[in-house]
Every structure is written in C-alpha cells, then in structure tokens.
Amino acid sequence: MGKLEEIRERLEVCDKQIVSVLEDRMDIIKEIMEYKKENGLPILQPEQEKRQRKMLKEHVKENTYKEEILDIFTYIVENSRRIQARTLFTHNIFLIGFMGVGKSTVSDYLSKILASPQVEMDQVIVNKEHMSINKIFEEYGEEYFRNCETNLLIELQKKNNQIVSCGGGVAMREINVREMKKNGRVVLLTASPETILERVKDSDERPLLRGRKNTEYISELMEIRRPKYRAAADIIVDTDHKNVEEIAEEIVGKLTHL
Ligand SMILES: Nc1ncnc2c1ncn2[C@@H]1O[C@H](COP(=O)(O)OP(=O)(O)OP(=O)(O)O)[C@@H](O)[C@H]1O
Ligand SMILES: O=C(O)C1=C[C@@H](O)[C@@H](O)[C@H](O)C1
Ligand SMILES: [Mg+2]
After folding, report:
1. Ligand 2 neighbour 224 (Cβ under 6 A)
2. What is the ipTM of this complex?
3. Coil, helix or strand for 115?
4. CA 110 – ligand 1 centroid, Å
5. Average pLDDT along the chain, 258 residues, taken 10 residues at a time
6. CA-242 nearest atom, ligand 1
7. What's the number of CA atoms in the CB half-sphere (13 Å) around residue 237?
8. 3-88 falls under which CATH superfamily?
9. Pocket test for ligand 1, best of 199, 209, 238, 246 (most atoms within 8 A of CB)
C-alpha cells in the first residue's frame, strides 16, 4: 500500500468514528427530550445551549483548529434542534390570534430554536400575487384574498414541522380550521386590548386598525372574533407580561401534553 492510501485509510477510520459518536450524541438528545417530557420539565431551555457553547469554547481555547471546531459544532447544535423538533412534533404548528399579539415574533423564535421552517402566510401571499395585501383587497376584493389563504393552507399540508404565522383573519373561515387541523396543531395567542395597543401603536402596517388605534375599537373587534379564535384553538397561550422565550416554552409544553 502506498503512503497516500495508508493516510487515507486513517482518515476513513476517523470519519467512521465521528459518525458513530454523532449517532450517540443524537440518541442522547432524544433521551433528554423523552426525560423532559415524562417529568414535565421545561423543553426548550435556551440557556442550556449557551452554557454548552461556553464550555466548548473553554475546552478548545488552546486548540489549533478551535475556530473550525466551533463552526462544526454550530451545525451539530442546529441539527440537534431539528431532532428535538421531530421528537416533539410530527405536524405543523399554526399560530393564530389578533393583530399584533405576537404571531410573527413567536413563530420566528420557535423556528430558530427548533430549526424548523417558518411560514409567514401574509408574506407568502404577497410574494405569490406580486401585490401588497392592501392592493389585493382593492383590486380583487377580500373574498379573493381569503381564497388565497385557504389555498395556501392546503398547500402547506405537503410538509411537516413548519411553524406557520397565520394572517389575523385565517381562523374566521371554518374550512381553514379544518385544513389546519388535517396535519397541524392550532395555537391561539391572546393579549388584552391594552397590550395589543402598546404593541401596534408605532406601526402603520395594519390597515384594519388605521385611524382606529384605541382600546375601545380593539376590544370591540376582539370580542367579535373571540368565539371563532377559541373554537379553532387546540391550545391557548396568554401573552400579557410575558417575553417571547416564556411564550415559546409555554406553547411547546402545552403541545407536548395534548
Ligand atoms: N411578548 C411580547 N412582548 C413584548 N413585545 C412583543 C411581544 N410579542 C410581540 N411583541 C412586539 O409586538 C409587535 C407586534 O408583534 P408581531 O408583529 O409579532 O405580531 P403579529 O401577531 O404577527 O401581528 P400581525 O397580525 O399584524 O401580523 C412587534 O413590535 C413585536 O416586537
Ligand atoms: O385580521 C385580519 O383580517 C387580517 C390580518 C392581516 O394579517 C392580513 O392577513 C389582512 O390584513 C387581514
Ligand atoms: Mg405577523
């Protein structure tokens, strides 16, 4: 055997060891998830990832390849998140609720922490139609927009493990609720009118609230929508006085115990 072949053989042995250790690591991740589920412990615990990263940095600080090793670990952790998500859910998660309640913020965070794709329904429709939502309403009417929402919900059933931030009106149509439930769990986020006002007051992007940004109007519209939101929900999470990490943890905890 030539020198090069001999070196390559050592490399192959090394790769196989890496595969084997990675498999062990992934099994451990699954074991942790099962243990947390069985014992009702918080599932996401982002602070644990930070501790792990700190420990690793300390461990490799004198290593010649420390930057490369840390880079590889970024991918390892990303994939552990994906395994976590698949251990927890095999379906899609649909976030519904009033304008400004935090659907986009929470779905963005959940999609990062669970390394799962995020779908922003309003944005997908805008991209498909090459038109803003305001323009779609003006040119084709609300019914057309609502049909776009229903068609998108049907399309989303082709994939799993997506975190979907729904348009504020999605739960108003019964067919939409049926479509979401075919391969998904529906999470209703709620907040008081005061909290909603605080969260939307500096933005002009919500046409339904234009010129009516006050708690009286928000309250009125919320009451009209409440029964449909509640009827659609598999779980309800109140977001008042909670940060995004707390909300995400509560969602995952409740979904795990459905
Ligand atoms: N838990 C929270 N605490 C404080 N601020 C929040 C929280 N959740 C969201 N926000 C803020 O409130 C505003 C509205 O949030 P977001 O855009 O996520 O709501 P939304 O439900 O997606 O609204 P829309 O229905 O219009 O799409 C944002 O500025 C966001 O940063
Ligand atoms: O609450 C609603 O009916 C809407 C909310 C937005 O997300 C958009 O989907 C659209 O402006 C309609
Ligand atoms: Mg949003």
Report:
1. no
2. 0.96
3. coil
4. 14
5. 92 98 95 90 87 96 97 94 87 95 96 94 97 89 94 96 95 96 96 95 79 92 95 97 96 90
6. 1
7. 26
8. Chorismate mutase (1.20.59.10)
9. 199
